[in-house]
Structures are given as structure tokens and as C-alpha cells.
Amino acid sequence: MTQSPVQPPPPLPAPPHSGGGGALRGDVQVRCAGCRVILRVKTGVVEFSCPTCQLPQMLPPELLSRARPQFPQSQQQQPPPIQTLPPPLQPQLKPMNLQPRPPVPAHGIDPTKMQLPCANCQAILNVPHGLTRFSCPQCHVELAVDVSKLNRSLTAPQSTTPATAAPPVPSPPPPEEVNEEAIEVEREEDEGGTAGETFMDYRPPKLSIGPPHPDPIVETSSLSAVQPPEPTYDLRIKEELERSKALSCLQIETLVYACQRHLQHLADGTRAGFFVGDGAGVGKGRTIAGLIWENWKHGRRKALWISVGSDLKYDARRDLDDVGATCVGVNPLNKLPYSKLDSKNVGVKDGVVFLTYNSLIASSEKGRSRLQQLVQWCGPDFDGLLIFDECHKAKNLVPEAGSQPTRIGQAVVDIQDKIPQARVLYCSATGASEPRNMGYMVRLGLWGAGTSFSDFNKFLGALDKGGVGALELVAMDMKARGMYVCRTLSYKGAEFEIVEARLEAGMEAMYNKSAEFWAELRIELLSASAFLPNEKPNSSQLWRLYWSSHQRFFRHLCMSAKVPVTVRLAKKALSANKCVVIGLQSTGEARTEEAVTKYGVDLDDFVSGPRELLLKFVEENYPLPEQPEPLSEDESVKELHRKRHSASPGVSIRGRVRKMAKWKPDSDGESDLESEADSADDSNDSDDEFQICQICSGEDERKKLLHCSECDKLFHPDCVVPPVTDLPSEAWICHSCKEKTEEYIQARRLYIAELQKRYEAALERKLKILEIIRSLNLPNNPLDDIVDQLGGPDKVAEITGRRGMLVRASNGKGVTYQARNTKDITMEMVNMHEKQLFMDGKKFVAIISEAGSAGVSLQADRRAANQRRRVHLTLELPWSADRAIQQFGRTHRSNQTSAPEYRLLFTNLGGERRFASIVAKRLETLGALTQGDRRKVMAGPSLSAYNYDSNFGKKSLMVMYRGIMEQEKLPVVPPGCSTDEPETIKEFLIKARAALVAVGIVRDSVLANGKDVGKLSGRIIDSDMHDVGRFLNRLLGLPPDIQNRLFELFTSILDVLVHNARIEGSFDSGIVDMKANSVELLSTPKTVHVDQMSGASTMLFTFTLDRGVTWESASSMLEGKRRDGLGSASDGFYESKREWLGRRHFILAFESAASGLFKIVRPAVGESIREMSLSELKTKYRKLSSLEKARTGWEDEYEISSKQCMHGPKCKLGEYCTVGRRIQEVNVVGGLILPIWGTIEKALSKQARHSHKRIRVIRIETTTDNQRIVGLSIPNAAVETVLQDLAWVQEIDD
């Protein structure tokens, strides 16, 4: 059902004019406030509607004078009076004269905003309500709204017109008063509703085979709003499963839908694939085994199972045995040769070939690849299973701009291309954490032939524009089409808490000292690099290593700062009869092994990771000049000759080999080139005729002539002084050459001495730096420290990838390095042994790293002896949330007696939040597609508050940098500063610039002279301007005080930008719940599209919402608060101090126990999302003592709001406006969305209100029958366009 559009005011008849067909001089050009097209408005028309988008609007005040009719002097006829708005007419309006021109300065009024003049160029600007600072789009001057003068400027009288002028146009009605209450309600409506419950209990909706799952399973409420297709596939192993009860009902459901999907083909002829997105611990392995067994029964006896680790083959064998498939062999590919798998030698005729992703890209020395081997084994008509287990390993097929796709990602796509009829199964709890990571899932049919997106990049672009809500819609679409399941273990009972580990006094001093040291080291390295030839000080390998070491050093320091809190929390948990799992990423093994190699296995104390890292960096990378080779007395001359002649002895300038004995006197007028040419031509002549003595010019005794190896001249032994009696056996030098050589040697020795001096000075500086590093008080390796403080290796199970560890000696003096394994246990099995000790209750603390804990189950398993509740401490967050989810899944799995308590530890250093930022960003989008809804428990509000690496974060960083460099004014007052004391701001900016220089963000810094003496200038390169990651990384290397102040400034600017985006309606808030006291489906939903393959449809639902709160409900709310003793003296009914349209607004306010702010309830729209402080409440409202007055006002507003919006009866958007309207219609497109995405995007782009142009995903639930719909919100004004476009799309499809 759609509403009939409000009739817009018609353009009025233009007065007659003389002349040809040109426009009158009084005509004005304006830009439509809705669709932005240029319109030409006839003289005298003040109010008009756009013929394209039908938006009613009026001329801005400064164009009214130009709109007055201008007539020639000769024309005496009076123009007809300007009409006021007539009653609504039929919409048979002539279109206005549209002029397709290049952009010209044009204006139009946007009725949803304030119209204010620019103080500089006087242009009338459309300013969003609540925006106080902005720049003029025409003259680019920074402007601020003076609220005190706002009303005066809005009600300024029109200037009078001289009597001689044309008859005056009646002034337009004064602009409507700015209704602050309406602005606030509109803002909340644009943001959407609140987030409701995130998870729903899950049970298969259309299947009832098999026992229930052993643990509570949930699905996000977004996904639960979508029904999968009807199951039509009949399992061959159904009776067997019902007898054995090996698979639960939800695992059997996966089997049915996967087999059903594998019967379908995509438009390009390849077989359709299926995606299992179940969370960690749900039992994906056993589901895969069931699928292999089902296909085996159909005669498809070959399967490829690709996973992350070769050890998981034991799990695969166990799972197959559990489902009864004991006859299916598991063949690990890493144990097989590269020859044909089905040959007599190898003998793999059928069964499962189990391999890792790394094997997929492996090849033999002879060039035969594993990929070719597998394709050959499968054969061209292979229609068995191709299983990508933990398929997130292939995620970087389509990487960020500037990087290359990974070989694994490419190989995953290649094998799918080569066996087009394979039954592909994608399995991962984190497989689609970002849409970019779905590039390898080519068999889902979300892009390509027969879809709305021609290729993956188009699909990616559409999702990026749609924001987080779009990701959630993709998950819903996939479920509706029967290609996706995504359930997770319920997190009910699991506790999440962020624990801030504040730096202790000693640690803070250590941190300050370290930050100073790194800044000094940078200056030292810059100075040392300046002495090196051919060295660019800022772009060499040295600086890449410097900044990576810098980041690792301070990350290590942050980790060490959390050790005392970790130990305290662990001991507290142990005393409460719980057990502890501590998660970290890096073990510091490399530093430990380097120290053991250097100092031996017996040490005084544990190794300090930061110290060893610094020592290694300086030892290997300090720029030393090359040490010169000294010249020895006897070899110096010979060495010099050798060097002079060794490179290309006797090569002429034309490249020919010169004959050494040939010589011509200088008196010959020929050039060298001519003589060389001659010598080449006369090569057959004897060389003897040219051999003459340089002194006597005689040719006697040619055979005895001495040849000078330096100048190539010939001498008789008797002619030289002193005469040479014995012919030298080695190279000989004449006297003049010897004199020259000795001078050169002397100079050379002086030069070498200078180089040696420089080298020794640099070496001395390097040794001094190393000595300073050794004297620094730096913390020990956190892993060794924690193990030691919690009772040593006898009490702590270590499940990590390191081979050895440092253990404190029994007498407490010193530590010894020893291997982690013993004679009885191999290194390969040591982690399994440690895990078993923990599960058997012999050790109650386990420390896990990513390398050691892949696939390990540490939950409070009902089958294990140790069933104490797990307290999971994350000492160090992983680099990505994909890995964080995997780590959380170690302690939260099926068949557990209790859910774990999670404690995420952060220091109070702003920079360390970089790592939380990465994880929060991933968790936010992981929730969107991995679990279908980004607001899942793990990404709760406390953690998502740490997400700074977003578009708003990048913009905030640029604003902050420009403010610090004094290129622009900062939009907020820096922390610790005051506007009353401008010198505090100036002082902060100086400190901030110096800090950014110290961490290499400000480059080419110079201290100014003259009037700006002492002022630091420099530049920040463009790539750094938006690099939030680099800023947060480098921030770590600053002293805590300035670090936290800079971080606070950054987050304050971010808050301002996000706040402004919310006001303007451009902030992406993901899925929002539409809440109301009554939600009813207005009519039968319309089917607007049907998917040919799955039969899933797209529906248009129209709901009626009643958001109001009756007087009785409001009174009982207040009474309930008072009865429970939760009320405060300020609770009660209030009325607005100001009137709008002759009326006041009424509210109920009561204090919220959680925040200390006041919850606001309005008669028309119910409870507000935003809470209000007491001071704001008292500024805007006055408390009512008379309940009768409150009742009358409340009921009056409740009644009026059912018929009109808060802008009153003359609202320019008419019936389309829903601001503060109690009863409203909401249109939602639900079901399949991706096939019609482009159509909806096009229709929304034409909307007048900015917030209506954005694609918004909403969730709505009817109050009578609890029918839940999740889909795209379609504004009432856009419904007709969407229906028309979809009907056209449907015709084409048909």
C-alpha cells in the first residue's frame, strides 16, 4: 500500500512580457534542494515545486527582489497580483524550463535545514540543525553559528521598496521558528532505534531428525528472521544416524542443505557450493565427516579435505570413525610421493586425501606440483567433495590496494576452476570477516553471470557503500537461498570484562626513560648515517628496521606492564577454586635463544626481551663507516700498481688490447686514435723497431731494456741513475715514477689514518650506546616471569610453540635454560602432554600462544577431571580478530559444565589501544557475517569503543595533524588546556609538534629564527596524514603523559566528527531495531522478485507503528520507579520553557541508575535513545507540580501527534514527514535483497532528506504475532519509484 502524494503548490502564471521567446530579465535560476537539478523560475513565483522530484520549496530571501516582475517603461498594464497558495489542484503542472548547463551559482531552500547568510560572501546556506561550525562551500571561509543572534536574523524585516519601482511583492511568510524539540526527535529517528537482543535460541526450523545438540546453540536475531528453503533432499544415511545418534539435529540439517545445494548449478555451468559458518566448538569436523559418508553411499568415493595443519588428520580420522565411516581411508598427502596417486606404487584408489593449504602450492624439484597431482587424481568429471576447512587461510585473494594476492588464495581458486563439477564446501567460523575476504568463494554465486554484480569488485563496491548493515544482509540472503548456515555456542554465562592495567610508578619511570632513549637513538642514527656515502638517511632499510623494532619494543613493554595484574587476577581465580588460561601471541623465544647462544645456558636472571631486542638492533644496524685497510711498508707500492692495472690492463680507449712495448715519441703529430688504428693495421710488422731507450733514444741492446710498469717507458740499465746491474725479476719502476708514487703513498696513509680515526670514533659511540642499553632497567620476558610467579613449570601447563625455557634454580639463585620436553615425551607431543595435565587437574594454570594452541580444547569438559570454571586472561591481543575468535574458542566449546570468564587486559596507554583497535574493527565486521550480526556479545560496546581505524578515524587524524601544525584551528580544546588561557593551548601545540618530530611523523623539522625564534616547523607527508595505524604505533614510543594527551585529543576530534555525522544522517549504525508500543502488518506483503534457482522471494512489507505512550502508562512508569525506591527528587513530568506554534512540549524524565543521566519519555514517540543531564533538563524544561496540567498537556500532545508531525500543519514535506508523528507507516523490503540492490540504491538516491538517501537495514517485529522482518527501510516517498523499477526488472527477468 502506498500513500497518495501531497499536491505541491503549482507554479503561478507569469506576467505578460514583450519581446521574443527569451526569459525575462527578472527570471532566476535555482538549484532544487532535493534532486539538485538547475531550474529556471518565472518572474513573480515565490513558492514552487520541482517537476522532477516533486519537492515543495521556496526562493531564499536574497533572491526575492530578483523574483519581482520587471516590465518595460512603455508597458502600462499592471501585473496581476501574486497569488497566495490556492487549495490543492490536480497535478497538471507545466514543467519548468530546465536548462542543462554547466554548474552555475544556484540556490534552493532545503526545508529540513536552517537558512543562514554567510558573513563573508552573503550566500544563503542550508545549515543542518545543531551544526555550529562549518565552512562556506562558496568562499571557503570558516563560519560559526551565533545562537543568540539566530532568531533576530530569521525574523529580520524586509527592506521597503521605493515608490518608483515595480509594485512590491508581498513578503513571504516568515520562516518557521526553529523547533529544537523537533530537531532532537528527527535526529533520533535518523539514527534509528536501539539495539535489541542479539541472539535467539536456535533449533532447525524445518527438520526434526536427530537428537538435540548437547549445548545451547544460538543464532543472531538478524539471521533468525530469515527462513531457509524447504528441505527436499532425502539422506541415505538417515536411518543409520538415527540409530547411532552420532550427529545432532543441527549437524544433520547442515548435511541436508549442503547436499541439496550441491544438486544445483550456477549460471556459468559450475556446481553450486555451500558455506558452513558455524562458530568454534559447534562441531564442524563431525559435520564434514557425515557429508563424506553420505557421498560415499552415493558412490562418490573420492574426497579432498584441505585444512590448516597436518596434525588435524588425526581429528579427521576420529570424526569419520564417530559417524560410522570406518572403511573410508584418510591419506595424508605430505607422506605421499609426487607421482600419480592412483598408480600401483602409491595405490590411493579412493578415500579422503588430506592436505594443508601449504601443500596446495608445493611442488617437487622436478617441477611437478601437488595441484596438478590432485587434479589428475580427481579426473575431469570429478563430482565428489572438495572441502576447504578453516578456509579463512585463503582470505587474501583480493588484498588491499598496493599488495599482491597470496599464492594460497590463487591456488584455491585454480583448483575450483579445474574441477568445475566438484561439490565445494567452505568451512570457517571466521571465513567472511570482511567482504574482501570472500573473493575465493566463487561457487556461492553471489557475483558473476546471472547476478546483479558482473564481478567480485562490483559486489565489493556495493557492500562497501552499504556499510555494516549490507554485510548482515549478505548473510541473510545466503541463508534464504539455502547456501549458508551459521550457528554459535550460546555465550550465556560467559562474562566479558575489559581490565585496565594502569602503569605502576616504577614501570612509568622505565617507560619514560625508554621513550627518551629511543628519541636520542634516532638522532644518533641520523648523525651517524650522515657520514656514510651514498646513504639516504630517511628511506633506507635502517629506518624500516628501526620503526619495526621500536613497535615491538614498546609492545613488549606494554605486555610486561600487565604482568602484575595478570598474576594478581590468576591468583584470585585460583583461590576461588577456578582455573586460569592465559593467552598471548609472542613467547620471546628468539630473544631467549640469542641470549643463551651469547651468554650460555646458566644465567643470573631471566632474559629481558626489550633489552635483547635493542642490543640486537644496534649491534647489527648501527651505521659504521667502512674500516680502511692499512698499507704495509713493503707491499704498499706493489699493491698500488696492482690496483691501478688490475681492472683492465692495457685496454685502449677504443676497447682494443694495447701492445705494451709499442711506443711513439710525443713529437709525432698523430692522435692516439690514429696511432692505435695504425697499430691495428700494421699488426703483422715486427714490434722490435719501436723499442728505444727513453733517455738516450738508442735502440742498442733491445732485449735488456727495462720496462717501467708505471709509465710504460723503456730504459737502458746503464742510463738510469743509479745504474741497474741485475735485471729485476719483478715489476720495475723508474726514478721519476717512484718519487711520484711515494708522495701519493704518503697522502694515502694520511687519508687512511683519518678514515681509521672516524671509524674508531663511530665504534666507540656504538659501544657506548650498547653499554647504556645494558644499564637500562628493562623488564624480563613476560612468559618466563608469569610462569615463575605462578609456581614454575610444575604448576603451569605451557602450550606454546617454543622449544626451550628458562627455569629458576632450586636454590632460587640464577636460572637455567632447558628443553621443554623430556626423555619420555617427544617435542612433537609436548603440547598434547601439557594439555592433558591441565585437563586432568594436575595443573590449574595454562599459558597458550597462537602457534601452540591451534585446535586445542581447554573448556570445562564434562568428560575431563578438571571441571573448574575457566578464567581466560588475554595478556596480549592477537594481530587480528580472526585469531582472537580462535583464541576465545579454546575455552568456550561444546559439552562444557560452565562458560568461561574473559578478561581482556589493556594498559592505560593510549597507543596500546592500536591493537584493540584492529581487533575491535575485525570483531565489528566478524559479527556481521561470521555470526550475521555485528552486535554480538564479543563485540560489545566496551570493545567497539576502541575502534579508531575507520574512515572517521582517518579524517580525525588529518584534522588533528593540521591543527597541531597550525594550518587549521582545532575543533576542540586540547586536553589540559583552557580557552581562557590561550598560552596553555600554545604550549600544548609546541609539545605536540616536538613529540611528532621525535617519532618521525613530522619530517624535515627546522627551528625558526627571528620573530618566530624557537618555533618548530616541518611537514607531514600525505600518506601519513590518514595512517591511523602508524600514528597509534608511533604514539607508543612517547612518554605516557604526552602520549595520553595526544590520544585524548584524537578521540575528542573523532567524537565531534561522529556526532556531526549522526546529525547529518551519514553515520552507519548497522542494523537498528524499530521499536513501538504497537506494530501491525498493514496488508498482505507484496512479492516483488523471485530467485529462479532457490525459489526465494523478495517481499515489500508495510507496517503501521504506534510509538506513543498514554498518560496512564507514563504515570505507572513513574509510580513504579518510586515504589521500587529507585526514583530521585528530580523525577517527574516537565514542560518545555519555550513555545512552538503556540504550544509547549511535555516529557517524563527519570534518573537512570546505570548512567546517572535522565531517561526521557515523550507522549508521541516513547522513550528517547539519548539520555539527558540534569543541567540540560533544567535549562530546557521546567518541572510541573500540577499533575492535572501535566495530564492535560500530555493527552493533548498524544492526540495531535497521531495526525501531524512536530513541524505543524504547514510542514513542507506534508504527509511524508514522520518527525514526532505518533502513528506512522514503515515500508521494509525483506527476503532476498542482493538481486535488487541496484534498483533500491537508485530509488533512494533521488530522496530529498539526506538521511533517506542512505541504505538503512532495520529490524521490526509485530506485537501481535511476533513476526520478525529484517530488511531495507524504504522511505514512504520512494515506495512508488521502487515498485515501478522492480516491476520493470521483473518483466526483463520473465
UniProtKB/TrEMBL annotation:
Residues 155-164 have a biased composition (Low complexity). Keywords: Metal-binding, Transcription, Transcription regulation, Zinc, Zinc-finger. It holds the Pfam family SBNO. It comes from the Eukaryota. Residues 177-192, 668-687 have a biased composition (Acidic residues). Residues 690-740 form the PHD-type domain. GO terms for biological process: regulation of DNA-templated transcription. GO terms for cellular component: nucleus. The keyword Thylakoid does not apply. Residues 1-22, 69-94, 155-201, 625-687 are annotated as: Disordered. SUPFAM superfamilies: FYVE/PHD zinc finger, P-loop containing nucleoside triphosphate hydrolases. GO terms for molecular function: chromatin DNA binding; histone binding; zinc ion binding. Residues 1-16, 78-90, 165-176 have a biased composition (Pro residues). Belongs to the SBNO family. This is PHD-type domain-containing protein.
